[in-house]
Design goal:
Elements: E1 3-10, H1 13-23, E2 27-35, H2 44-48, E3 55-63, H3 69-79, E4 87-88, E5 91-92, E6 98-102, H4 105-118, E7 129-132, E8 136-138, H5 146-149
Parallel strand pairs: 6-7
Antiparallel strand pairs: 1-3, 1-6, 2-3, 2-8, 4-5
Helix pairs in contact: 3-4
């Protein structure tokens, strides 16, 4: 097993988390939280006020021998509009920005290469931020597995897309190693 972690912000974290739970294979764990903000240990209410600088984020732990970072990025781009800043679906605010937060320079490079590959697919500029993870705080218990526990709860993500195999166009072959 090749255990890795990536942090994905794609609007409301409930849908992002549930999508990867449905995807299943290669996903070892999901956790909702708040990333790259300025306030230590923020509450949901503080994050929603827009004053903490945090993004609603899913900590995705995965087996890179089963699910590659490129495949994760392809699924991530399926669920978000990467050209919309500080908004996904009906959710508006800096806490709903799209971002990928990484722990290693190799992951940073792989994510940037994937985004560069996908630029041709969009008329507007891609505004997904790619940054080194500065901080991450686990969200309150009631946000964990939210849509699993409340299957009819609000979700901006089309969860059916998690069950459709990725196409060749969605997963570039950038080099011999598959980071």
């Amino acid at each position: 097993m090749n255990k890795r972690v990536i942090y994905l912000a794609g609007g409301c974290f409930w849908g992002v988390e549930r999508y990867f739970q449905i995807l299943g294979e290669g996903v070892l764990a999901t956790e909702t939280g708040y990333a790259n903000g300025n306030t230590p240990h923020p509450t949901y209410e503080e994050v929603c006020s827009g004053t903490t600088g945090h993004a609603e984020t899913v900590k995705l732990t995965y087996d890179a021998d089963v699910l590659t970072l490129r495949e994760i990025m392809a699924h991530f781009f399926r669920m978000i509009d990467p050209t919309t800043k500080n908004r996904q679906g009906n959710d508006i605010g800096t806490q709903y920005r799209s971002g990928v937060y990484v722990e290693t320079m190799d992951d940073f490079k792989s994510v940037c290469e994937y985004i560069d590959f996908r630029r041709k697919d969009y008329e507007r500029p891609i505004v997904v931020e790619v940054l080194k993870l500065r901080n991450y705080y686990t969200a309150e218990d009631y946000h964990q597995n939210y849509l699993n526990d409340r299957p009819f709860g609000y979700c901006h993500v089309n969860l059916n897309l998690a069950e459709i195999p990725l196409s060749v166009e969605e997963i570039p072959k950038l080099d011999e190693s598959d980071a």
